[in-house]
């Protein structure tokens, strides 16, 4: 499975109709949709599809045809996301009608091609299931610990400084095992 960290856009044209596809992290879906509706007030359709993992690691997906004939735009866009194993990602396709009807098959192809184009122009990141872990360390050991975390490419989501430093980490199972090997301290799972 893969996801995107940054918004990307691509434009696809078919028989004078313009399809502008935006691929973005799912967390930015609502704000991006509002922004695009303001930016493109004359656009005919704002078709979307998204897939994300919920708190139980289940894939939740949804799509909208936004006035296009049923099943010709949202669902094909969702199928392209699923076929590329994208999660935690959303695509919004803005259509400017060019005056020539594409028919249902033409719409399915055009929307699918627009989504494929924006995916091909995006940087996809491999998804790894990470767990939250806290690590408490003395100030004197902080720089050494941060060096090890950097070497293991472990993401530090937050730090709290009190009598000691509490590091909040996002780690894969493999990273956690390697960290436990290198550090003679206990890691505590965060709930």
Automatic annotation (TrEMBL):
Residues annotated as transmembrane: none
Signal sequence segment: none
UPF0029 domain residues: 135-183
BP GO annotations: regulation of translational initiation
Superkingdom: Bacteria
Domain Impact N-terminal as annotated: residue spans: 15-118
CC terms in the record's Gene Ontology section: cytoplasm
One Pfam family, short name: Impact_N
Recorded family membership: Belongs to the IMPACT family.
NCBIfam families: IMPACT_YIGZ
Protein's UniProt name: Translation regulator, IMPACT family (UPF0029 domain)
